[in-house]
Amino acid sequence: MIEKINLNNILFLDIETVPEYHNYRGLDSETQQLWEQKTQYQRKDEVSAEDFYERAGIWAEFGKIITISVGYFVNKGDIRNFRVTSFWGEEKKILNDFSNLLNTHFNGAQHVLCGHNAKEFDIPFIARRMIINGIALPNKLNLFGKKPWEVPHLDTLELWKFGDYKHFTSLKLLTKVLGIPSPKDDIDGSEVAHVFYVENDIDRIITYCEKDVIAVAQIFLRLRREDLLVEDEIIHV
């Protein structure tokens, strides 16, 4: 089935998120209480809500998006290119820019979005933050009333599950077993908040996010038994 999809119609994506505030003390008292209630079952007894706040970027209600990276194929005849770009800055600008991309270039019935665990994390997170920021959902993210087979999203994690829904495989592990260069050669997701708030190095985070997008595209190619991208085919725009 995936062999029949035109690669030029897929938008590969990845997001990086952090807690909405640098630390727990940035929250008002009501939000602190809500955070404590939200995480009571995730936290071990000895871990306080304040200490657990470093993980707030996992939840759209308590986190924010600091970059969205996307990649797409531009194939003409025997020439194959994969173009990668990123949106960053204030969250509302990131979301508006991403929405404009979808509405302008990936709004057709043939277009689909693809990420790793994107159905469970990236896409719902983006949609929730758009609503929080008062941004209209683009058609590709507005899933209200759509049947499962009408949802225009692909997920390399889901494709790798082959129906085994209790199985989770990280992007790092999947690239390893499929012989794809690891995108986790600098930082990983647990370090993004520190790099953002303490090191103030958004360029490093963007590079990391774009590597994840490239890795997802490479996984998709391997699932189709096609040649992996080589460095000359990847264009950063």
Automatic annotation (TrEMBL):
Keyword Hydrolase (UniProt): yes
Coiled coil: none
EC number(s) reported in the record: 3.1.-.-
Molecular-function GO terms, alphabetical: exonuclease activity
Pfam families: DNA_pol_B_exo2
Domain Predicted 3'-5' exonuclease PolB-like: 61-224
Protein's name according to its UniProt entry: 3'-5' exonuclease
Organism: Flavobacterium helocola
